[in-house]
Amino acid sequence: MGGANNDEFPNSESQQLIASVAHELKSPLTLISGLSSQLQNPAIDPSQYKQYVQRIQFSSDRLLGLVDSILRGYELEQHMLELNLEPISPQLMLEEVAHELEPHARKQAQLIAVRGTRHNQTVMADKGCLHAVLFNLLDNAIKYSLPESTIELEARLRRGQAQLVIKDYGLGIKKTDLKKLFEQFGRFQRPVPQWATTTGLGLYIAKQLTEAMNGSLELTRRKDGSSFLVNLQLSHQASLFEL
Fold it and tell me: Which of 18, 19, 144, 166 is most buried, most CB within 10 Å of its CB?
């Protein structure tokens, strides 16, 4: 018999990616499975039934958001992603993602506050990619923010660029871990709250997608948490404003 073709088996990096993706998706799938089992109980209270259905709907939406982000990251690495850069309102995108993930924050008694700007502003971005970036960053902020804290979102102007800010109040990130933060398989010793399950893969994807849109992703460390900064080019249709 001939030897096995090594190409048929995933390499160590592929195996690590598969494991990371599986870990990222396990939490919402486990919740959906558990709640679905509870719904089969004929003695379930109607008000509890409605609550379970809402949580299943939210977990399904969050799962779709995570899958979309992972697929876009894969397509980008395989040079398959076709970007459609167009003028987009960052304010509206922040409000949209905040609305989608608000039920997730509510489980930790957290609030999501979107600060408005005084003037309209548009950036050159791909709508799907920008949604994936903000979804990942806000999902990450919810995981690491303290219960009963407020996560602040803001679109502002900095150094001739639009800057989208996701500011959390939580456990923070050590200075020694900054270099590993946006690596695909970077491991760092950030304290993980008991309610959080994460691989950090979303931050890597967010950085790659932001750079594909000619932008940059930064992190500002604070004593009471972290601020992620998405820097994007203003479109020619933008109305510049002063803070």
Answer: 166
Q: What pTM, to 2 d.p., does this model score?
A: 0.72
Domain limits at 109? 86-232
pLDDT of residue 160: 84
- Give the residue ranges of DSSP H helices in the chain: 12-39, 46-77, 90-107, 127-144, 201-212
Backbone angles phi, psi at 17, to 5 degrees: -65, -45
Size of the chain, expressed as the number of residues it contains: 243
Q: What is the pLDDT of residues 116-142, one digit of tens each?
A: 765 578 999 999 889 989 988 998 898
Radius of gyration of the chain (CA): 20
Burial 164-176 (b: 16+ CB within 10 A, else e): bbbbbbbbbbeee
Structural contact between residues 83 and 232, judged by C-beta atoms closer than 8 angstroms: no
How many independent structural domains does the chain possess?
A: 2
Tell me if residue 22 falls in helix, strand or coil.
helix
5 DSSP assignment: P
Does residue 65 sit in the same domain as residue 94?
Answer: no
One-letter amino acid at 106 equals R
